[in-house]
Amino acid sequence: MTEAVKLWDWTKSLSYEKNIPYTSFNCTSYSPWLISQFFGKFEDCILHANDLNMYKCVSDKAHFHFFQNIIRPKKRYTGKWVKAQPNEKLDILKERYPLESESKLLEALNILNDEDFEKIKKEIDKGGKK
C-alpha cells in the first residue's frame, strides 16, 4: 500500500476483509480507542473490545492482531457517528475567556442574551477584511 490507511479502512479490514497488513508505514492512522469503540457496538464483539479496554498497555500492533484473529468475518454497519455541532456563541466565549473551562462557558450561554454577545463580539473584533 502506497497511500495512508483511513480509520474506516481499518474497521472494514478487521471486520470482514482481513486484507490490510499492519506495517510501520500505515500504522500512524490506527487508533485503538476508536477501533474498540467501533467493535463495542456489536453483540459478537463487545466482550473482546472490553477485554482490550482492561489492558491499556497493549501496543497498537498487538491490539490490531488481537482483533484481526479473534473476530469472525462479517459485515458490520453502524450508521453515522454523531459529531459535535459547531456553536458560534460558544466559540465567541472561548475566544474572549480562553482560560475558563467549557462547562463554565456553557453555563454562561444560558445566562447571556443576544445584546451581551454583540458587546463581546465588538470587544474581540480585530478589524480587517472578513
What are the key terms here?
130 residues; single chain; 0% strand; mainly alpha; 2 domains; Zinc Finger, Delta Prime, domain 3
Task: Kindly describe this structure.
There is one protein chain. It is built from 7 helices and no strands. With 130 residues, it is mainly alpha-helical. It has helices at 7-17, 32-39, 46-54, 60-70, 88-96, 102-111, 114-124. It has 2 domains: 7-70, Zinc Finger, Delta Prime, domain 3 (Up-down Bundle), CATH 1.20.272; 88-124. Helix 2 runs antiparallel to helix 3 and helix 5 crosses helix 6 (102-111). The mean pLDDT is 83.
Please identify the top-level CATH class of the largest domain: Mainly Alpha
Largest sheet: none
The coarse silhouette is: elongated
List low-confidence stretches. none
- Rg, nearest Å: 22 Å
CA-CA gap between termini: 42 Å
Count of alpha and pi helical runs: 7
- CATH-derived architecture of the largest domain: Up-down Bundle
The chain-level mean pLDDT equals 83
